[in-house]
Amino acid sequence: MREFVAIAKALNDEHRVRALLALRRRELCLCQLVELLELAPSTVSKHMTILRQAGLVEGRKDGRWMYYRCAGPKAPAAVRRGLAWVYESLNTTLRAKQDLSRLKKIMESNPTRLCQQQKGK
After folding, report:
1. Does any domain span residue 95?
2. Helix (H) or strand (E) holding 68
3. What are the backbone dihedrals phi and psi of residue 39, each rounded to the nearest 5 degrees, phi first?
């Protein structure tokens, strides 16, 4: 029951759902997610913490960089079903398509430069 409630709470925010859609087939660093969501790094970090606590995403630190990806095939069944529900329900929405288009451009940018630009804002 606790697992279900944590997943439901994590999915109760448009920014977190957008992050999950962005992470569907790729790993992204925090700065790329910040650029996509157009939120402060601390806000995106908080969103990612909530998604991690629910088991929906995994994170790894590489030096000063934090990378995220969706939970894999070894995740609990409730997590896998929750992710599948998000993808199936929202993948073809206008917002998801717009985000995918923006993400393609973001991924062409150097993550180091993105991070530096965000710190200068």
Report:
1. yes
2. strand 65-70
3. -125, 165
Domain region containing 34: 2-113
Gap between the Cα atoms of 77 and 108, Å rounded: 34
- Note whether residue 34 is domain-resident: yes
Asked whether residue 120 carries a pLDDT value surpassing 90, the answer given is no
CB-based contact 33:74 (threshold 8 Å): no
Walk across the sheet containing 28-29 and list its strands: 28-29, 65-70, 57-62
Q: What is the pTM of this model?
A: 0.91
Q: How many structural domains comprise the chain?
A: 1
Angle between helix axes 2-10 and 77-90 (nearest 10 degrees) is 30
* CATH number of the CATH domain containing 45: 1.10.10.10
